[in-house]
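Tokens in:
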């Protein structure tokens, strides 16, 4: 298994190289001069020339790509033309909030979507199933920013319980950390959870029709044991795949 993972990782290296070369070449394919855009409308030709020299835009394409690739391999992602700070530092500043929001959104999504999908498959054709599918359709239809506005209106304006914006590190206290993440995690989790609920329902329905499920029921196992220990366990692969894509 470990060797297979290593082979798959190594197979992505040439693909990443081709993609990096293509994206890098877009600078030369697209019309316009990025140095002129950076310099502004009132810039002189000398100003544009200085930006060309500073960013290496006057170098040949392959030489520039080689310098960029060498820097990336050594952890140097360059300097931001907007903030004049190292790109690696800017990514580091945003890494903790991004990871925190991703994890809390994932918890919200899985906590409500998977149980709803399991219940809908268990009660297929009933009003519970139709209600879950209705909620899933609403989740697909309502944009996340609309749901976010409604949550802010309800829990930050009408009921001033949660902050509207900002981020507090977990090092500054768990309560303010989680308080700032509840609203965005809920807005993102409920929308994405609609897809997970549908995938869970479809996967569970397929598994519940298998012979070994009927055998488990014939042995006298409880409905909960059949659904969780046997059905959900075997239906988890497509569910985990969709969740993984969403995290990415």
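Residues out:
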């Amino acid at each position: 298994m470990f060797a297979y993972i290593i082979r798959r990782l190594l197979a992505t290296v040439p693909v990443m190289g081709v993609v990096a070369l293509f994206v890098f070449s877009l600078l030369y394919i697209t019309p316009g001069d990025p140095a002129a855009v950076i310099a502004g409308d009132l810039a002189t030709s000398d100003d544009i020339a200085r930006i060309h020299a500073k960013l290496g835009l006057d170098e040949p394409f392959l030489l520039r790509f080689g310098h960029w690739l060498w820097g990336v391999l050594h952890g140097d992602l360059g300097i931001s033309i907007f903030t004049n700070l190292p790109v690696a530092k800017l990514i580091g500043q945003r890494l903790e909030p991004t990871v925190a929001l991703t994890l809390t959104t994932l918890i919200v999504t899985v906590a409500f979507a998977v149980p709803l999908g399991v219940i809908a498959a268990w009660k297929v054709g009933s009003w519970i199933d139709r209600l879950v599918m209705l909620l899933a359709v609403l989740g697909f239809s309502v944009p996340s920013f609309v749901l976010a506005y409604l949550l802010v209106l309800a829990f930050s304006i009408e009921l001033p319980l949660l902050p509207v914006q900002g981020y507090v590190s977990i090092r500054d206290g768990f309560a303010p950390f989680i308080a700032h993440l509840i609203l965005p995690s809920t807005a993102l989790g409920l929308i994405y959870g609609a897809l997970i609920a549908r995938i869970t329902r479809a996967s569970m329905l397929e598994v519940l029709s298998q012979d070994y499920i009927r055998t488990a029921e014939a042995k006298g196992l409880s409905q909960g044991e059949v659904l969780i220990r046997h059905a959900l366990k075997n239906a988890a692969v497509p569910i985990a795949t969709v969740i993984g894509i969403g995290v990415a």
